[in-house]
Amino acid sequence: EVQLVESGGGLVQPGGSLRLSCAASGFTFIGYGMDWVRQAPGKGLEWVSYIGKSSSPIYYADSVKGRFTISRDNAKNSLYLQMNSLRAEDTAVYYCARELSGTYDLWGQGTLVTVSS
Amino acid sequence: EIVMTQSPATLSVSPGERATLSCRASESVRSNLAWYQQKFGQAPRLLIYGASTRATGISARFSGSGSGTEFTLTISSLQSEDFAVYYCQQYYKWPPRMSSFGQGTKLVIK
After folding, report:
1. Residues in chain A closer than 8 A to B100 (CB atoms)
2. Chain B residues within 8 A of A109 when measuring between CB atoms
3. A–B: how many Cβ contacts below 8 A?
4. E-strand spans in chain A?
5. Which of residues 68-107 of B touch A (CB under 8 A)?
6. What is the pLDDT of residues B17-31, one digit of tens each?
7. How does pLDDT run across B50-96, given as a tens digit for each residue?
């Protein structure tokens, strides 16, 4: 089955860190660029970061630049998001998404990150 | 930065009727426009790309049109499963420094 499964979300204090993972299966992972997209509670979709097929290029939204790091392990068919210096406004469901020519044609079910003391 | 604006914020339509959703870009995105459907508690699903091409497995009741700055998603003969939130997304200028998505239109049952 073609799917993406995120994990690693949870409750973290402001200033803390968290690492999200996304396991891909059912397709040739190395053939696609991958993204993280987030959605704050009751809000719309916000693009977070992109990584190319061979880990280059890498891009970040201004809102997370310098705090988040995207990476991938093509041998493990996995995508990661290391989130440091977390803020309350980072609270959201984080989706990994497969990119196809600028659109997102496959999404995971999402993992909730809550930043609160 | 290209800003995507969707209207209306909420659209109330009866089952069996047609729904028309709008998306406007602050500058031309040519035909680099996608539409997504998101049901409550679920991940978004790609419906339309290239402004008018249906994604794999998407019902012919969904159609997209437009180019440049004005786009429309039309859903004919609404079914119960169509009531959801719909987002447009531009991918002409990419990567975006800010969000490339519109704020969404919530389609509710009248």
Report:
1. 47
2. 42-43
3. 60
4. 3-7, 10-12, 18-25, 33-39, 45-51, 58-60, 68-73, 78-83, 92-100, 103-107, 111-115
5. 87, 89, 91, 94-104
6. 999 999 999 999 999
7. 999 999 999 999 999 999 999 999 999 999 999 999 999 999 987 77
